[in-house]
From TrEMBL:
Organism: Microlunatus parietis
Ranges in coiled-coil conformation: none
Any one of the GO CC terms: protein-DNA complex
Segments traversing the membrane: none
Protein name: DNA-binding transcriptional LysR family regulator
Amino acid sequence: MDLLEGLRCFAAVAAERSFTRGAARCGQPQPVASRRISALEQRLGATLLLRTSRRVELSPEGERLLPLAGELLARADRIDSLFTAPERSLLIAVPTGLTAAARAAIRRGLPDRTVGFVDEEPPDREELLRAGLAQLAVLPTSPQQAEFTVPLGIAHHDHAPAARFHLDQLRRPVRERDLPPRAVHLLAEDDVPTVRDPVTEACYGFGLRADQLVVGTPETEAWTRVHERGDVLLASAEQARREDLAWSPLARPVVRRSYRLAGSADLDDHDQVDLITRLATGLGGGRGRTP
């Protein structure tokens, strides 16, 4: 159990990149979460998190451990609920960006359920649902079928951002031509046709180089490159705020994450609507389909 609790705290802090928010996410006081992660590092003989005065980053060892930790925790949660009455247990597979406040609100809204969350990329969320390891999963869908959407824009370092970000801003001026090209990164969460394809087409239309669009960069590495190299990242405004970055909507194209809540949990209509609303709010979006 010490291993599982350590992994749970590690996964929460890794997702939030903050000990304070990570501890809240896993429902532990911050000193307890810190001690459990330190014990986990001692047990494994590796430094998993790189701590600075303002940020927490994954070490290379932490990057290797994180997907295995998520898989093990999902199975452990499933075992915990194996002999619980089905109507009392609910495991939801969610995107990594769901806020701790939204998780708490979802649990408060379903007081007769034991609600757990597992954070995974889209293909893994679908697999957890298919394997019966999660009862519900937030999955990408077409804008026309979306139950909620999340507006996307550009997270960047410009402290006096324009009203909208134009992709041709990634071209370096002549005086910076010797520097590496600035890239726009798309996370695995956005490696879906409704987001990837229009962004790819726009990058080519603005004359950007092929290596200036990077799809599927690991999330921690993508944020690091924004801070380190001046790259930009397609993200929600909430994600940019967490990273202390500016955020601007794209001038062209206008893109959103489109989601549906898949699976069955025998919720009544009121609880279903409330759950979707809280998921939408916690991911930085809102209810309804896009035109």
